[in-house]
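User: Show me a protein chain along with its predicted structure.
Assistant: Here is one chain, sequence first, then structure tokens.
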Amino acid sequence: MTGDPYAHLKDNAWRELAEIDGRLERGDIGEAGWHEQVATLVVPAYLAATTPWEQSGQSGSRSDWEYSRSLIADAIDRGGTFLDVGCANGFLMESIVRWTPFEVEPYGLEIAPELADLARHRLPARADRITVGNAVQWQPPQPFTHIRTNLDYVPRPRRRGLVEHLRANCDRLIVGVFNEHETEHTVEEELRSWGVEVAGRSVRSNRRKRGMEYRVLWIDAQ
């Protein structure tokens, strides 16, 4: 069971993810097991998908992908490098170049080797910019202008560490896209509880789920 009344409106696999979180909380699995079980849930679905956006986690049409993900570009305030954490097949790396008027050089970090291989196959000209690694532990070879991530890429106890680590390696950390009900601000409140000041946000209503919103937040370097 989840205490979130809007969970059924968010991610399609919320029940399975909640079960994995529960196993970690009970001590049935460790953090490595958490990542393994999430990968078992996510990777086969992504690899079996037939469109670039579905391979990157978006069900529906290309229009749905553009609508739900392109608000990430609102956080891009200058040209430079852009690291997509959890890049999957690289479709966001490919798309961000179109969405922003600034000149950005996209990079990708992916914890699942199979998805990183897919991204390299899709984007051969950028294959050397796609790295396999756990974002909490990975040491970037360079600072980035922008880094994009989601908090749920790591177990809940690791989220603050993820934000602090990535923020220390970029000018602006972008969190999202994520789904929240219009009446809640859970992600922003979690960030503020760590003493993190949110510099800006972009919100777009979910066309398919009443009351839900796609959201992006951004945090500037200290």
